[in-house]
User: Fold these one by one.
Assistant:
Number 1:
Amino acid sequence: MGKSIVTGAAGFIGSHLTERLLDMGETVVGIDNFDPWYDPKSKESNIRFALANPDFSIIKEDVLSLDLGKVFNEGDVVYHLAARPGVQDSWNTGFSASVENNILATQQVFESALISGVRRVVFASSSSVYGESATEDTKSISPISPYGVSKAACEQLADVYRARGLDIMIMRYFTVYGPRQRPDMAMNRLFRATLPGTYRFPLRGNGSQRREFTFMKDVVTASIKAGSLDLQEISAPFDVGGGVSASLGEVMSIVEELVGAQLRIDQEPLAVGDPLITVASTDFTESVLDWKATTDLREGLAQHYDSFKERVSSNSGEIVEF
Ligand SMILES: NC(=O)c1ccc[n+]([C@@H]2O[C@H](COP(=O)([O-])OP(=O)(O)OC[C@H]3O[C@@H](n4cnc5c(N)ncnc54)[C@H](O)[C@@H]3O)[C@@H](O)[C@H]2O)c1
């Protein structure tokens, strides 16, 4: 049996995925360049549990410069999560990082995976490929941000390499939250805006925008099922959504309740590139992967807050800046 390879293993979702695979008894090789886009110290912290496991090793290199052919072997499963995420940073000159770390890096992963005879690639795509069509039952690929365009291009690359015989599963994650969430994401910023200090949450619009928030444990379960189940090749993508679409205003109320403090807010105009509403269509994912998101938003946010507090106190009260 081959090993599991996780690109982006030191990131938010990749580090949880790695730990779950290790818990299942897999041998895991992580690849991560510790991109300083956000503080690499938090990435070191993300993989500290995995590093204590002798079945884990990490290659601290860029997917684009590493000789992937020397890492990938026949029968391996590659979970490809390394990317430059984040919608707002993909505007203007930020798009070059999306092109490099998303499109070019993904093409290299698919190419090497094909040549090495890996068993399957599980690719972390995003609800951002849908743009405003994310509310519809029959969604279309119509991104409204450069980041969404980069993920849509990766999905097209997947079609190209699938036609050459590579087994690729596409996972479209919907707004993932939970312990270790990236510092640019809303929930982390919300918790931060309740702590003593001056940081204020930039509220874009009136808080009525809705997201299908998805707890990281549910994302990890769906991804591992896609990587490990004995399935015939599947080209249709899997929506991976938490089960309920909630408004940002609702999340803000839960955060205030959990913390027992009021948020400091700065009112800002709605951001371009962020759809007003996202709703996942998970019937296909549920039936094929025998999966369903099980974490309720309040419960997931409580776990997120516990780990946020722990991280801040173990960091002498310092919060990772973005
Ligand atoms: N977090 C979400 O809500 C969400 C939603 C949809 C899709 N996704 C996708 O899931 C994946 C993981 O997202 P995340 O939130 O954990 O992000 P993250 O930034 O925490 O993790 C990505 C990791 O990849 C590494 N990386 C980036 N470029 C690399 C390169 N060229 N070579 C090697 N390593 C590289 C980074 O150092 C980082 O540790 C990404 O592909 C992202 O686009 C995330």
Number 2:
Amino acid sequence: MTDAASEKRPARGPVPAAAIVRAPLQWRSIEFISDLHLAPETPRTVEAFRCYLAGTDAHAVFILGDLFEVWVGDDARSDAFEATCVQILAQASARLALYFMPGNRDFLVGAALLEAAGMRPLADPTRLDAFGGAWLLTHGDALCLADVDYQRFRAEVRSESWQRAFLGRPMTERLAIARQLRDASQRRKQAGEMEGWGDVDVDAAAAWLRAAGAQTMIHGHTHRPGVSELAPSLVRHVLSDWDFDLDPARPRGEALRLDAAGLVRRSVRLPATPHGNAGP
Ligand SMILES: [Mn+2]
């Protein structure tokens, strides 16, 4: 690697120790979802999520980050939109195991929301032991090392002091800050500063897998669903983001399902409503 290339790349830090979750033997199937980016402006995606959770026969659903477009503190959980989401989650967690890993949009989800929704917290990364195998679960943003500015920002906002200061501000200020951060991120993307930016560092991802004693990684964040090899015998599966609002004729949403036979992708569909506005 040349000096110029190594300058752009931050030194790969220490590999984080993965938490371990062991699937109970009675689980026959587990589903992974991420990047729903639920917001008041995405009612069809919220409805697809509601139908998906109500209908799945999986014994456990693991949400791997960015369930919400933005989360500025658990004290918002009783507002109208957030309360609707809590109700959807609580109904599901009453009949299946529901796990939540924070993403870069909803890392401020706290104990109060988890409790209200019946969700169990997942550390990033977590190794899931199930059906005789091991899967390493992560949101994925911590591995996007080429985006040096983002990694600096991430280290700051994940610190206890930043979070304490942020959560101590009035709700209106928090929402304004969140909006500014999102706009700045949009501007960077539009300015084309994201070349080679939006993907995980393959070598770092392989190092995480080796350290965790797993061969398969499951992550979201990049919105580029698919499967690819990281290194010989090391594989990653990237989850789909969900969007049922941008173009209702082309809804997008998947769950990645794991059972004793392995992994399979399943499309999520929004059931047709008798008076729906699906158009001609
Ligand atoms: Mn993300």
